[in-house]
Amino acid sequence: MQYRMNIDPECPFCRWIREGRAVDTHGSVAAFEDGYPVTAGHLLIVPFRHTRDGLSMSSLELSDAEALVRTLVEKIRGEDPSVTGFNIGMNVGESAGQTVFHAHIHLIPRRDGDCGDPTGGVRGVIDGKRCYGSGT
Known about the structure:
With 136 residues, the chain is α+β, with helices and mostly antiparallel strands. The protein has helices at 12-19, 59-79, and strands at 24-26, 29-33, 43-47, 83-89, 105-111.
């Protein structure tokens, strides 16, 4: 398959692709269960092609990833009515917290009460910046 070009034998996501561990696919991307899930149902959307980060994904890969995210969101909502929201995002570079240098998008289902105060969402990656104006 043309999408499996440029595989890194040392990359864990390339290994997952080779092992056929995908829970779903769409064109040039696959979804995998996160190895260290933040919440139940946390998935990673990963291009078949080994590429460093989300900003190096091709237009086709980004389009396929968006389509797969939409499909997975509907599936998760249909299977788990406790899911009331999602965090969707990527870490680009070591300073942003990226630890596996194969592009991937996190799809994290959220449930009411899964944390004390979710206000600010992804702003919480910087200590003290999550809540607007409160300093926390």
